[in-house]
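To whoever is on call:

I kicked off a structure prediction for a single chain this morning and the downstream step that reads the tokens threw a length-mismatch warning. I double-checked the sequence; it's 252 residues and nothing unusual in it as far as I can see. Pasting both halves so you can look.
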Amino acid sequence: MAELTWISLAILALVFATSGIQRVTGSGFGLILSPFVVLLIGAHEGVMLANFLSIFAPIFIMWRTWRLIEWKRLAWIMIPALAVMPPAAWVSVNAHEGVLYVVVGSLVIFGILVSLVVHRIRLSIDGPVTRAVTGAAVGAGTVLAAVGAPATAIYTVVSRWSIPVMIATVQPLWMIVSVVSFGTKWSIDDGQLPGLPWWAWLGSVAAIVGGMYAGEWVQRHMNEVAMRRAVSAVALLGGILALAMGIQVLLS
């Protein structure tokens, strides 16, 4: 019981920090949260929790950026994302825990590497195929690891998408794919729902709200470049630890 209490408190602190990062950068919630929660409570349960909490984080940004959302582009990305999610959910539910650790760690590390080199991409391409591929990658990444940001990061650069418009448009995307991911996997196997106390569930949602307000303060007082570097370092550490855990589980 005491161990579960400490784990729950650690999750609350982690959610508070990652929601602040989400407010400052517009993304990064799953990228930071996912590898650490899977280390705390297990691969299947951790991804489920990250999916659940990713439903709420975008809401607090979306209502402020509503007017900038590009609904047509959102639909082109959203529909393929939703299409791949049921089969990806089946794979996720039935996957060996070690494999899921490796997937989470690998996607997080890939996401960080993408963020470091994506600005060097000179290719300019956009259209239905590009958006469909992006959506499929978002859907699969969200279901398997609660990490869909690398796909949108690459698409943003190659399509020359306006950053403010991108940040606004991906908020409903994250919210809807997180709802579908969580609901689909729960319908297949409700035993993968994390066994946290009730106050940890409510506290996590409250921590998102508090983290968002804290993120606004940080945004006014901290250099954004320094913030992004810190986020990348922490996420990379989490990804490496999750990958190492997965390899250890598979070899044991």
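Update from on-call: the warning came from a stale cache, not from the record. Cleared it. Sanity check on the structure: The radius of gyration is 17 Å.
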